[in-house]
Structure of Peptidase S54 rhomboid domain-containing protein:
Amino acid sequence: MRLSFFNGDEISSDSRDAGKSLTRTSRNDIFGKRQWTNILLAVNVLAYLAQTVSDGNLLFWGAKINSLISEGQLWRLATSSFLHANIGHLMVNCYSLNSVGPTVENICGPKRYLAIYITSAIASSAMSYWFCKAPAVGASGAIFGLVGSFALFSLRHRGIIKGIEGDLQQIGRVIVLNMAIGLLSQGIDNWGHVGGLLGGAAVSWFLGPALEIDSVSRSGRKMLTDKAPIFRLFKNR
């Protein structure tokens, strides 16, 4: 497991198994640790190209449209997160995902990263469904879920992991940018942002990482163990 931050600090493990000891190491190239971020970026771009080729039909088929969701088209709660209103909307979300995604992917690993992204996307659409009647599309809700995940990680590990202030400033800029776009652009609503943020924080609380100091080596390195609630649940069964 490797935890990589915007400022270059990392925490790594010699084992893929949860619960093994973690120590701080020097920075490596994070581009080898962002496979799913790259895939999600590609999916969003390809979906937009498909929208263009279909003359907007794909946008109608997959957008969050409350009346159609009420009729049972629940897939729209997920598909709407891969569609975008226009090229500017797509570019802003790709920039935001590229800014936040690699850090969260390194922190959580691929499985938890995907779980956070997809859950946040659905939570975003669900919140928008309940509080906003207008049609909506966009990956920003899922991205806000990644932001919520990293914010929770930072709060959980304050005092254990140092040097993440710059990371928090970076995701703060992502929040401001997306909220501004949400206020100014048609087809985007900030209720979805709130839903994604809360969804990402909630699933991250359960899935982790939730690192605790297990021991300290003679050299002063902290040995950390992942004690996320999900591991306790399976342990008790």
About this structure: Residues 1-32 have pLDDT under 50 and may be disordered.
